[in-house]
Amino acid sequence: MNSAAAAFLTLTLWLCTCRTVLSSDEQPQHSALAVQRAATVQRIGRPGELVGNWRTVLQARRGSGNGANAEAVTGTWQFRDSDAALVLKFRPGSRLQQIRITAAAMPSEGLRLALQEGEQELSLVAVQPAHADAATERAEWIFETADDAVKSRRLTVRRLSDIRWTMLLEERAAGGADWRRMFEVGMTRDGERLAVAGVGEKKCVVTGGRGTIAVQHEGKTWYVCCEGCRQVFEDDPAGILKNYQAGLEQEQRRVEGEDRR
Fold this sequence. Notes:
By secondary structure, the protein is α+β, with helices and mostly antiparallel strands. It has two domains: 46-193, Calycin beta-barrel core domain (Lipocalin), CATH 2.40.128.20; 201-261, no CATH class. The protein is built from three helices and twelve strands; from the N terminus they run αββββββββββββαα. The strands form two sheets. Strands 1-2-3-4-5-6-7-8-9-10 form a ten-stranded antiparallel barrel. Helix 2 (227-235) packs across helix 3. It starts with a helix and ends with a helix.
């Protein structure tokens, strides 16, 4: 072997070694990110069920078809570093264009919501916790703008079932005390019937939500709930599945503990 070939072989082996070391160093970082993202998703909580496609009707007056509009809503997770956001996009967006729900840095601060209304984005915060926890069939979240906001808005999000939600948007005049209804959005998950809600559904390995998109790893098929979760899974499938399996084992231990009581 001449000197040039020997030098090339040495360089190739060095690059392979560096790649292996970097890959092993990156794995804990990916796993840590997955844990942080999962914690943020957990803090956002049950509204995460809104991921997916929804048929909606926007009504200015309850029970009246006057001024009602049909909207298609798509809910997805968006991930950036350790942060997670639940984004709902309305089409054609006759009154609302987008809702973005995030968790504050401190768990005690509750959830935050950005409301895209026309060309203006309004910031709202949760003013009270859900009336029901994750174990019950109903829950409610109320978000309001700050007292000094140019436009006063209150958005009440209600969960009726895993495939039925409503959102009521209200406004308040400057200096006023009473809230006035603007419109309500009734949401039904696309392609679902009420009688079969939740039967045999697959779980997203990233968030634990409803799995609708198949992904592959080492010859096995898993499921995620949206394109954001697909990207996170493809970035670190081993880390995501490790955390998912750990969550399943933790839930199994919890169930077994309750059975012994």
